[in-house]
Amino acid sequence: MGYKLGICCCVCSDLNFFTKQGATMDRTIFSGFEIPAASLQSYVGLSIILVIPIYDRIFVPIAKAFTRKSSGITMLQRIGTGMLFSALCMIVAALVEMKRLKTAEEYKLVDMPGVTIPMSVWWLLPQYILSGIADVFTMAGLQEFFYDQVPIDLRSVGLALYLSIFGVGSFISSFFVSVIEEVTGRDSKDSWFADNLNRAHLDYFYWQLAGLSAVILAAYVYFAKSYIYNRQSTT
To answer: Residue 78's domain spans which residues?
Structure first.
């Protein structure tokens, strides 16, 4: 369960298109200086750094008072929370992309991909932050799951499986994007990932990922309820 779940999470958390969105938006900090679109990915790491102490010093003690568990919530609950934030990230990304496309249409820039859309790149910040929060819960939970729930003699194998999630997830994500581009780009139509993002539909793609995340989360909750921990002390 953990391995399939981890791959699905990686498929649903690809940030490459966030960068492509940012490249079309107003990135001016002050006159004569624009931040690189890819630099916004640093906010994922920054949000992780900020959220971890909040989680450890505030959330865990409060949760501990209600659950009577040393970790506040179980590792499976932690993973589920991260999946919820991942779905919220895709919803926010879809809404922001709809706003970006509407702005391009209002300013008649749909067929002018080289012209900057008058919409601040900081509109993308919430989805980067939500992605970081999702990582705090999901990836940390998955690492703990693979380390703790395998036999002690096989812990190194568990960690290797955890690391392989990212590679396998990236391959599946690339295949997923290729299939969608092939299907939506038939008959000389602009695909969801057209080079001209003003005629593409990344919003459709994000809504699809949000729906996929919701289905995966529902299935996860169903199966997690019947999971029996190998060592009850870890819960």
So the answer is: 2-24+38-225
Q: Which tens digit of pLDDT belongs to each residue from 184-213?
A: 988 778 889 988 999 999 999 999 999 988
Tens of pLDDT along 162-191?
777 777 777 888 888 889 998 998 877 888
Instruction: Please name which of 136, 151, 164 lies closest in space to residue 50, comparing C-alpha atoms.
Output: 136
| Cα torsion angle, 182, 188, 191, 197, sign | positive
CA distance linking residue 141 with residue 22, whole number of Å = 30
Q: Give dist(CA 36, CA 216) in Å, integer.
A: 34
Q: 230: helix, coil or strand?
A: coil
11 in any annotated domain:
yes
Does some domain include residue 31? no
- Residue 32: inside a domain: no
Run of H or E including 28: strand 28-30
Q: Please tell me the distance from the alpha carbon of residue 206 to that of residue 97, in angstroms, as a whole number.
A: 9
Task: List, in order, residues 6 or more apart from 187 with CB less than 8 Å away.
Answer: none
Q: What CATH number is associated with residue 112? A: 1.20.1250.20
pTM over 0.85: yes
Question: What is the domain count for the chain?
Answer: 1
Q: Which of 196, 183, 189, 12 is nearest to 93 (CA)?
A: 12
